[in-house]
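DM from R.C. (forwarded with permission)

"hey, sorry to bug you on a friday — could you get me a structure for this? deadline for the figure draft is monday and I only need the backbone to look sensible"
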Amino acid sequence: MKPGLSLRVSQHLSLTPQLQQSIQLLQLSTLELAQEVEQMLVDNPFLELDGDEPGATADATDAIAAGARESSVSDDYASEKEVEKAQAASESIAEPSTSETPDSLNWEADGLDGQDGEWGGEASSEWDASSSGAGSSTRNRDGDDEADAIDLACEHESLTDFLHRQALSLHLGAEDMAALRFLIESLSDDGYLEESLQELAQSLAGDDLEEREELEQRFAIALKLLQSLEPVGVGARDLAECLQLQLRDLIHTAEDEGTTEARMNQLLLARSICAQPMDLLARRDLRKLASLCGAREEQLREAMALIARLEPRPGRRFVDLERHIVVPDVIVRPVRSSLGRVDFAVQLNPDVMPKLRVHDVYANVLRRHKSSEGHAALQQRLQEARWFIKNIQQRFDTIQRVSEAIVERQKNFFVHGELAMRPLVLRDIADALGLHESTISRVTTAKYMATPQGTFELKYFFGSGLGTETGGSASSTAVRALIKQFVDAEDAKKPLSDAKLADMLKEQGIECARRTVAKYREQLKIPTTTLRKAL
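My reply, with the result:
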């Protein structure tokens, strides 16, 4: 094959660093964005919160200028020493101040034309701060003493703290107390001890067999002490043991109070049921349980009703509420127009929007010392700060546009609820806004909207359509809501089968196969007919 020269023309997409950062920020959740902002504030000395006032003094300017002249940096980034000097200067001249939430957002600043001063001061975008506050909620701005959900969550006592406090009253020796504390710290959030005593002992003793056996004995004693604490059922290894611990406590209480013989027999039968394989109880296999427990089916039904009132998760009420708080990115409020019609206003949640700007003092000093060593690398860091602010702006701008398009198409949902949801796919929003479907997918992932109907992820408003007798389509979300409505209204003694639900949907003009009904029922976490049937 002879070597030769040839020309070829081709097109390909090249992702610049700025575009890559824009895509990355777009798909981040509120918490992840706050972490990214915090990291950028640490890494880039030219970026600061808009709540920090520089107060540029002559001494600070001279210190920064001297640091710029003495720096020795690579072509890409400033050295760590230079960054530390810049951060130290920033801390010496910046005094934090409380900034109020702005009434409007200024997104007009461009900042990419090479002018250093445009992104500082008045030209910086007015982003509301609590920049580290992905988990922050709207605070009480009227100054009253009413605590919000996060304040209550912070005051909420955890399960481990509650158990440690009880352990102090046991007056144990140092080694037994250490063993009990170790088991308490090993509990899951539900209050279960998921690791065996042998595994826990091995994790501490390693290959020392004698020490491992001694630890197992101490853990066995500590486990009995742990299971005697409140809440009843804590320290169980599985559901069966958890229920048996609660029934044992009820039996002891009944003995102390002198309950009736019928009540005592019911408690004993319930404990006998929990000693059997749990799948029999889950399936409500009365015939098999009757043969194993030696009781009549009527007695079994009463005992199983008693078991149903027990707590399968002893640590439920101690779960940290703060971890389950969803902070919305978008807020939708009803507004009444001049014609009396109800519309819906879409606005971004100011509590999740970081308020950032370029550090004026650093940018001005860098502009005045263009001939200093390392100027090119510092100029690149300044440009990165501008890019970051602009990409943050673009992220929230895209979220706003997508949210407005969703509200416009799902207006009936905000008025009437789930049953009025319309079919909607990503392509509908993408075509309307001139964006790609992948962009809409990134925007709607892990972003939440607070509405009069509740707080929902943006993806919630999308759903495929099912055909109707009139030739139209019904949203899968509306169909699921209709199925739930049918199940809630059913006779507990004669629950509706999937086939019956499909027939009822057909009567409403919705063509839905039985298998589709079963799939939607499972998505709604509705049990099967057998498990829904009343005892």
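R.C.: lifesaver. The longest strand covers residues 330-336.
me: no worries. The mean pLDDT is 79.
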